[in-house]
């Protein structure tokens, strides 16, 4: 399957695969996959630290990887999943935290965030998750 034909379900599967392969209690429990308009997929895992405020979310890692390749502003869709234990075979889709919502909207205001629903991934524009966003320019 080419990156251009990757569905939202495939994006969730990619996020699940990265966290299942990198899961480490106290270190990595959340995985992220994002797709850019070019069709490229970027993955990230969260970096847990003993001092909580220096921890880095999986979304930030994936966005940083995309930005490094010049595609930080080209995010089409993004999803994060949380693995509950080493034996968790289907990490659940989780909503981005407030800081990640800000980061996603700063880098890609037209991005779609995939959220959990009974019928599979639900597509929500980042603007719906961050109403009345603060803007420096007005």
Describe the structure.
The chain is α+β, with helices and mostly antiparallel strands. The protein has one domain: Cytidine Deaminase, domain 2 (3-Layer(aba) Sandwich), CATH 3.40.140. It has four helices and six strands. The longest helix has 15 residues, at about 10-20. It is globular and about 45 Å long.
Protein topology:
Blueprint: H1 8-22, E1 30-36, E2 41-45, H2 58-68, E3 75-82, E4 92-94, H3 98-107, E5 112-115, E6 122-125, H4 126-129
Parallel strand pairs: 3-5
Antiparallel strand pairs: 1-2, 1-3, 3-4, 5-6
The CATH topology: Cytidine Deaminase, domain 2
Cα radius of gyration in angstroms: 14 Å
Biggest β-sheet description: 6 strands, mixed
Rounded mean pLDDT is 91
How helical, in percent, are the residues?
25-40%
- Secondary structural class: alpha+beta
DSSP strand count: 6
CATH superfamily: Cytidine Deaminase, domain 2
Quaternary state reads single chain
Count of the separate structural domains: 1
Tally of alpha and pi helices? 4
Principal-axis shape equals globular
Q: Gap between N and C termini, in Å?
A: 43 Å
Strand and helix order: HEEHEEHEEH
CATH class: Alpha Beta
Low-confidence stretches: none
- CATH architecture descriptor text: 3-Layer(aba) Sandwich
Estimate the strand proportion: 15-25%
């Amino acid at each position: 399957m080419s990156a251009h034909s990757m569905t939202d379900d495939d994006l969730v599967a990619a996020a699940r695969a990265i966290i299942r392969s990198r899961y480490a209690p106290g270190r990595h429990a959340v995985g992220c996959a994002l797709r850019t308009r070019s069709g490229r997929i970027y993955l990230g895992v969260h970096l847990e630290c003993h001092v909580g405020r220096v921890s880095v979310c999986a979304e930030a890692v994936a966005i940083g990887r995309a930005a490094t390749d010049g595609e930080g502003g080209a995010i089409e869709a993004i999803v994060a999943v949380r693995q509950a234990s080493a034996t968790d075979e289907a990490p659940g889709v989780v909503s981005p935290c407030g800081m990640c919502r800000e980061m996603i909207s700063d880098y890609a205001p037209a991005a779609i965030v995939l959220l959990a629903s009974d019928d599979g991934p639900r597509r929500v524009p980042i603007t719906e998750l961050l109403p009345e966003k603060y803007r420096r320019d007005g």
